[in-house]
Amino acid sequence: ADASATTDNGTTPLMFAAASGDVRSIDALAGRGVDVNAREDVRGLTAAMFAAAANHVEAIQALRRHGADLQ
Description:
0% strand, mainly alpha, 4 helices
């Protein structure tokens, strides 16, 4: 499967993993070189923003370890 694939609105597998708090998937996808700072097309949200919206602190920490911009 293409780790960098997107839905019609630009949502990535990393964003889905972040929204569900799936740290193992975040680590696996980031390890495959996906853009941890990619933004979806509708609201410009990043994976870190998806994780924060769902209060998944461990997912946010994992994204930060992989270079996500938390600003």
